[in-house]
Design goal:
This protein has 2 domains: about 50 residues, Arc Repressor Mutant, subunit A (Orthogonal Bundle); about 130 residues, Tetracycline Repressor, domain 2. Helix content is about 75%, strand content about 0%. The chain is built from 9 helices and no strands. The radius of gyration is 18 Å and the shape is elongated. It comes from Actinomycetospora chlora. This is TetR/AcrR family transcriptional regulator. Keywords: DNA-binding, Transcription, Transcription regulation.
């Protein structure tokens, strides 16, 4: 993300909090400007439109998520631990994000495929699947569908955690991912 002025940073921080807590359509630029202590003109000067502000919100959230997952991958001390790192991060992440996945929530609201936020959402999901695929390959697990399987478990856990209020979904998804990896692992001789 490009470096933001202090005013733009304040706008983005306020918008991010409001979009996540209340939804994108429920929050207007008047509210964001007022709570940021800026004029609507300043908001539009910095971001161009509400759609671009939404995309900036999603990019900022994506950057934080990727940094957290990447740190967990790098901290893992075994190949399967690296594969499962995105699951390990979920409990900590959901403690700060009790409304589930911001990208899934935003996708539900952004019905226009041309909305700039939609590309950010798709990119985040593709990145996670690619990360699973890369770490599976690194672990010596050759299964073209397993990365998608892990993505489905991961995303399903987030949605089930938030929508069905089932915290155990995070643990169960991680256990399922571990079993799937163990079944595909090549035993060492």
């Amino acid at each position: 993300m490009t470096t933001l002025t202090p005013g733009a940073r304040r706008i983005l921080d306020v918008a991010s909090e409001l979009f996540y807590a209340h939804g994108i359509h429920a929050v207007g630029v008047d509210t964001i400007a007022a709570e940021s202590g800026v004029t609507k003109r300043t908001l539009y000067d910095r971001f161009g439109s509400k759609d671009e502000l939404v995309a900036a919100y999603l990019r900022a959230r994506d950057e934080r998520w990727r940094a957290r997952v990447t740190a967990a991958v790098e901290a893992a001390d075994d190949p399967i631990g690296r594969v499962l790192a995105p699951f390990a991060v979920l409990e900590e992440w959901t403690a700060e994000s009790d409304r589930g996945c911001a990208f899934v929530n935003a996708f539900a609201e952004l019905d226009d495929p041309a909305h700039p936020g939609r590309a950010v959402i798709a990119d985040e999901k593709h990145w996670l699947e690619e990360l699973f695929a890369a770490e599976l390959a690194r672990a010596g697990i050759d299964d073209a569908d397993l990365a998608l399987h892990l993505l489905l478990l991961h995303e399903g856990a987030l949605v089930t955690y938030a929508v069905a209020e089932r915290p155990a979904a995070l643990r169960i998804a991680r256990e399922g991912a571990l079993r799937a990896c163990e079944q595909k692992s090549v035993p060492e001789h």
